[in-house]
Amino acid sequence: GQQLNQSPQSMFIQEGEDVxxxxxxxxxxxxxLWYKQDPGEGPVLLIALYKAGELTSNGRLTAQFxxxxxxxxxxxxxxxxxxxxxxxxxxxxGGSNYxxxxxxxxxxxxxx
Amino acid sequence: xxxxTQTPRNRITKTGKRIMLECxxxxxHDRMYWYRQDPGLxxxxxxxxxxxxxxxxxxxxxxxxxxxxxxxxxxxxLESAIPNQTxxxxxxxxxxxxxxxxxxxxxxxxxxxxx
Lengths: 112, 115
Hints:
The structure holds two protein chains of two kinds.
Chain A: E1 4-7, E2 10-14, E3 19-25, E4 31-37, E5 44-49, E6 55-58, E7 61-65, E8 71-76, E9 85-94, E10 97-102, E11 106-111
Chain B: E1 4-7, E2 10-13, E3 19-25, E4 31-38, E5 42-51, E6 54-57, E7 64-70, E8 73-78, E9 87-94, E10 104-106, E11 110-114
Parallel strand pairs in B: 2-11
Antiparallel strand pairs in B: 1-3, 3-8, 4-5, 4-9, 5-6, 7-8, 9-10, 9-11
């Protein structure tokens, strides 16, 4: 089945630094999603990407849908303490295949 | 008020007990899902429902059952709980977007511990 490799598994950074994480897949997706999960809460959708090559921003967050449709990255600029959490990527084929395939997450820690 | 709510938020039970986790949504979405999350394993799909009359197994449905009581309600049952079902359980909803892909919105989760 499809697998997503998300890296890095964890990051420990200083407040103000920029962050980059990515996901790669062995097969193509038609949608890439990025979620953030705070401790004790459910994942919250950050950015949705629907087209290969698409670059989308949401405040300090920027995500791109890789041109090959097998990868995506998420950048966070000027990190702040509330960016702490687990970030998940998810891929979806779409159409009759609703299923989301999730990466295993990147744990981000921001040191004030 | 939250769009997707789950009850209970925390539950401790014993092996062999029957447990029901409930999910309600006010988003008006037709599609609902149940996932479990285990450390290091990410989110895995248990069951999903595209409408009240449609129920489908996900990748890890053994030991679980579901009921879609209404468009807004989707319950997950553990008929006879076992310790390896200790996990975080999430409900999610979605609605097709552009007729091709749809994005899923998650509830706050239920932490279940089976002793």
